[in-house]
């Protein structure tokens, strides 16, 4: 097998478990491919870590966004109740009664 064919085989069957023994033979025999394989493995690990960090960051942003939205809704509800003529004391009393039911 030529060097080009070896590289082609390596990339074509890299993730094929059935060809794992042949891939391992190539890695033992071809230093350049073995080095490339290590780089690919590191890139893959970096991508997994990057995806994990992005997911964590997205979760934090979603949580903050939900809190801000809840606060806005609460403020708007308070404004609407005050505009309807309810006194702050009545509003507080109504919310105390609601919270006891939860």
What this model shows, in words?
- This protein has one domain.
- The chain has 102 residues and is mostly helical.
- The model has no long low-confidence stretch (mean pLDDT 88).
- Helix 2 crosses helix 3.
- The protein has 4 helices and no strands.
Q: How far apart lie the N and C ends? A: 73 Å
Mean pLDDT: 88
Global shape: rod-shaped
Structural class: mainly alpha
Count of extended strands? 0
Tally of individual domains: 1
Q: Give the count of helical stretches.
A: 4
The percentage of residues in β strands lies in: under 5%
Largest sheet, in brief, is: none
Provide the gyration radius in Å. Answer: 30 Å
**Element order, helices and strands?**
HHHH
Give the uncertain stretches in residue-range form: none
- The helix fraction, in percent, is over 70%
Task: Describe the structure using short key phrases.
mainly alpha; 0% strand; 102 residues
Give a topology summary.
Layout: H1 3-13, H2 20-29, H3 31-83, H4 88-101
Helix pairs in contact: 2-3
Short note summarizing the structure:
Helix content is 86%, strand content 0%. It is an all-alpha fold.
